[in-house]
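Q: Hi! First time doing this. I have a protein sequence and I read that you can turn it into a structure. Is that right? Here it is:
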Amino acid sequence: MKLIFFTKSLRGMDVEATGREVAGMGLEGLDLAVRPGYCVNPDNVASELSRALAIWADMGLCVPMVTTPGDFTDPSPPGAEVMLAACGEAGVREVKLGYWLYQGPGYWQQVDSIRQALEGFQRLAEKHGVRVAVHTHSDAFFGLNASAAMHLVRGFDPRYVGVYLDPGHLSINGEPIRMAVDIVREYLCLVAVKAMVHVRREKDGQPFWRRELVPLREGLVNWNEALLALRDVAYDGPLTFHSEYENVSLEQLRALTRDDVAYIRGLLGGL
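A: Yes, that's right. Below is the predicted 3D structure, encoded as structure tokens:
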């Protein structure tokens, strides 16, 4: 399993600086955010992705996956095929899709609509030799856990449509990790590395709970159990460190990520 870094927190950096940050944090590659404001973005992906990958390869870094914008959910605009074609040409196999937000009553009708979109994405993925993935994101998103993700992807060809399992989000409103891995086993292609906790807050005198990202050693995910579950199904895809820590400096982000990486490497060494 390659340990890679989700570049969401490196917005505004050029290609070389992005690579230096990732390598400096002890990672083997990039989960490349191809979004507005990044060195590779939807406007330049056709020309810049392959060039950037060559630079990162010279730095000893791989790019096994791309993360598209959050609204990348429709295969019909020309930009959708441009994105997948660029990934295929550059040799980036895995492409994370955006998010479908629950719109209220009519769940199954919305599932049918999403599956129609996935049919289009599957055709493009097959054409360009890539695979698109649905991320298990907590809260009111379709595919919020393993079971819900299967509502979307079941029946599609797992060579071209997969599931991006996120144990951090599963710890908020998902299944136990071994159950989740078993549910999506045929479609499992990507795994996120993050940890969360429930935190009690108050607003206008009323209590409420929210999720907050914390270091891996402190969160709800039992990462030893998660890694064992992945080992038991022979998962060999990337582990992508999200490091979406709030209100931290770049130096603090580096330190937090290095510690997270050391923690996971230690657990992997003990399996």
